[in-house]
Amino acid sequence: MTKNLPPEGPQDVVYQARLPLPKRTVDLVVGLIRRRRNQLGTRWHKLTPGAQAVVVLAVLRHDHCLADMAGGNHVSASTVRRWVLEVLTLLSSRAPRLDRALKKIARSGGVVVLLDGTLVRTRRRTGTDNRKNFSGKHKAHGLLFLALTDEKGNLIWISAVKPGRSSEITAAHHNKITSHLREAGLGALADLGFVGLDDDPDDPVVITGRKATRNHRLTDAEKEANGLLDRERAAVDHGFANLKSWRCLTKIRMNARHATTLLRALLVLANTEIHR
Q1: Does residue 181 contact residue 205 with C-beta atoms inside 8 Å?
Q2: What's the first-to-final CA gap in the chain, in angstroms?
Q3: How far from 204 is each of 185, 192, 210, CA to CA, in Å?
Q4: Which residues pair with 155 in a beta bridge?
Q5: Which of 274, 270, 231, 254 is nearest to 120 (CA)?
Q6: pLDDT, tens only, 81-118
């Protein structure tokens, strides 16, 4: 007598997971998807705007594998990829430009902004792409970007990404940050990586600490000034922490050409989720 045994081999198991996001974040993405569908005039879709928004947000928040999300929602991995890129494009279009972001801070009575840069890791690539994305400072492959926050640590602007081998000061020169700061009548606090960024020592707009050199050791007053500057700049770390709470930034797995769109979309989501 034989018994009915379960089939051997792997089986698909669908499970539930918690997505810790405020309702306003979900509503924002749902609204963008619904407006986009209305513009295109398409009638049939596999999922509702709400279900599609949850799939995309789950990929961004938890860095879920596209194939896993596709299997759980009975669509293809390419469909999920298309949904993610579509939402990223819609969100990134809402990210502010540098000049407008600075002028908004100035109109609200702000005096200074906080400037910093960080590296987001990417997959190792072959050929020349592999060499230019390797950061000697971090000993890892990645892409460099700059960000500005207000004094409370709220993100206000993110630059386009640069190859990992680029320096922060080079990226700042490329984005003409000092010129935009002068035009808006604002100053910026930055770390030692931006020493020498400001080309007008008589009227600086970028304030950095003092570096010790072989021939000049820092005095007690200079060390104290560096400490005060670091305490004022501490809020910028909160802005980066909010951004990197989206785990898709743990290592960017999509094509690097979409990285700037991804970062600016996450800026919009981070500011929707948290505002100090």
Answers
A1: yes
A2: 70
A3: 11, 15, 14
A4: 149
A5: 254
A6: 999 999 999 999 999 999 999 999 999 998 999 999 99
